[in-house]
Amino acid sequence: TDSLKDTEASMDDSSEQNLDNLDKIGNDLLTKLVSAVNLETGLLEPIDPDEKVTNADALIDFASKLVAERNRRRQAQFST
């Protein structure tokens, strides 16, 4: 579920306390399992509970794929 309170969700609160809270929330999210909303129940559920893939793992994997795609496109651009 959304764990942001009103002050944390505010786009114009750049106080040190709020930024520290957002940093903590972000770091906590990185350790949680990758999840998605179950359209039948409306609940947030792990995508693959057996795999135990965290959001941090998924971000690293996604970044690796982006780098590989960028390199592929650069190579294709220079080889033509």
TrEMBL record:
Keyword Lipid metabolism: yes
One MF annotation (Gene Ontology) recorded for this entry: phospholipase activity
Keyword Lipid metabolism carried by entry: yes
One BP annotation, GO: lipid catabolic process
This protein's UniProt keywords: Lipid degradation, Lipid metabolism
Originating organism: Corchorus capsularis (Jute)
Protein's name in the database: Uncharacterized protein
Domain of life: Eukaryota
